[in-house]
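Case 489 in the screening queue. Each case pairs one protein sequence with one candidate compound; here the compound is flavin-adenine dinucleotide. For every case the pipeline is the same: read the inputs, emit a complex structure as tokens, and attach any notable structural observations.

Predict complex for case 489.
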Amino acid sequence: MAGAGTAGCTLGARLSEDPSAQVLLIEAGPPGRRRQIRTPAAFPQLLSSEFNWRNSSEPQEHLNGRRMGWPRGKVLGGSGSLGALIHMRGCRADFDAWRGMGNPGWGFDDLATLWTEPPDGGDPRPPNRLTEVFLEACTKCRIPRYSGFEGPAEEGAGLFPVARVKGRRWGARSEFLRPALKRGNLTVWTGVQASRVLIEGRQAVGVEYLLRGRLQRVTASREVILCAGSVGSAQLLLLSGIGPAQQLERLGIAISSELAGVGENLQDHLAVGLCWPCTQPVSLDSAGTLWNTLRYRLRKEGPLVSNLIEAGACLKSRKDAEECDLEILFAPVRSLERGVARGTKEYGFTLLAAMLTPASRGRVALATANPLDAPSIDPCYLAAAGDRALLEKAAGRAREIAESAPFEEYRGPAGSDELEEVAVSLHHAVGTCRMGPGADCVVDAALRVHGIAGLRVADASIMPVIPRAHPNATVMVIAEKAARLIRQS
Ligand SMILES: Cc1cc2nc3c(=O)[nH]c(=O)nc-3n(C[C@H](O)[C@H](O)[C@H](O)COP(=O)(O)OP(=O)(O)OC[C@H]3O[C@@H](n4cnc5c(N)ncnc54)[C@H](O)[C@@H]3O)c2cc1C
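Case 489 output:
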């Protein structure tokens, strides 16, 4: 298996439950046993660490030509080790649509038993004062209060379910991989980058990898599974000669299988980031003090237990819409890029206004044939008709909430809100190895790569359409489903 992120950690652990299976998990990043990864409020700092591949997008035509930061995890646990810990399910319509696209076994009811939730309800903690104000403001704006966080099937606002246990980050790495490491049949190599899949005829037989600058090979007795994420899995297929003929020929890569859909269908949740200074020192901006660090280290208490993006609301852009297509996220910090700091006097809060059902589709393509070069990532944000209007609607609802009475005693003058300048990614890339039967699809409903035996993809890249939710919980489900499919085969 290549890639030990959310999917790889889950699937590797599940497959190794079978004592007759020998599982090798190859991860490009380090083990990353760092306090910063475990501390929920520290996630913004991880984005400038060595645990991030630190890619950026191609210039975005509809966003003033900006290149957007494209973080993805390069560490055991993958992007799930860098994420904001929001643990949310998609809704029935999302998965029933997948099934309707020719993917039997992938409907909402088919997947119902495969969801994993963090223990103790995600270790709920009291929110920041401004988060309570946000929820009051939502009520003022006639958005009902969720009893839990029901999510996109119904309109509502509430505290996000958080992937946290005993004050620490919880995820596929801690929940699945760590306990499985005791088994003798699961081997994990870190700091090892897969460079391509070895293919003989139309059969995958192993993986070529780079270790300290040297190319080496490992053979697979049963099959090769790519779990390298929406960028990494598409990149690996292309480097292996599986993809659009024109692209491979241009780069001089021998074609193993012509598959036009590899790297296409890239989807992401785009949001508008709206920030306000806070006139009172109540936000989490200055929470990075020595005292709070000690409280966190010794007792797992205090503001550093917060995942910063504490609450949200799912909304419908039209009254007659069946499901929500907009989401407003709330963080009691002035800048999510900075996160919490020590000694700052700059207080504020941020609302991220996102569209959940983008119509735009982008692509991941090879920039060169060198596996060490970053691929070209072009999400084509706002390229499809209707996306801009949807995003503007989301931004309008966020402004309405932030400008309502409950925020009056906290709100300073609004910052810039020019959409092209303040649009940000929620880092939910999916779709580049799309599942389905069509000529533009990459894997079938059993996650087998079309046209090549012994090769599967199991990660965020197989989603045909992005769910109306933060995708990490869905990626765990994909891995659970993959484990069952592999066992049955
Ligand atoms: C900053 C950030 C915040 C996020 N916040 C949230 C959130 O709050 N809630 C939520 O639901 N989702 C969130 N997400 C999205 C979520 O983390 C991803 O959707 C999910 O982790 C994808 O899982 P994956 O297994 O497909 O890929 P990843 O978790 O990215 O794992 C891929 C792994 O493969 C490795 N890899 C890649 N190429 C190779 C190679 N050639 N050889 C070996 N290894 C390789 C990578 O290093 C990585 O470890 C966030 C993502 C980011 C980046």
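Case 489 observations:
- The pocket of flavin-adenine dinucleotide is lined by residues 2-8, 26-29, 71-74, 78-80, 82-86, 193-194, 227-229, 232, 236, 427-428, 459-460, 470-473, 475 (CB under 6 Å).
- The chain has one domain: 6-488.
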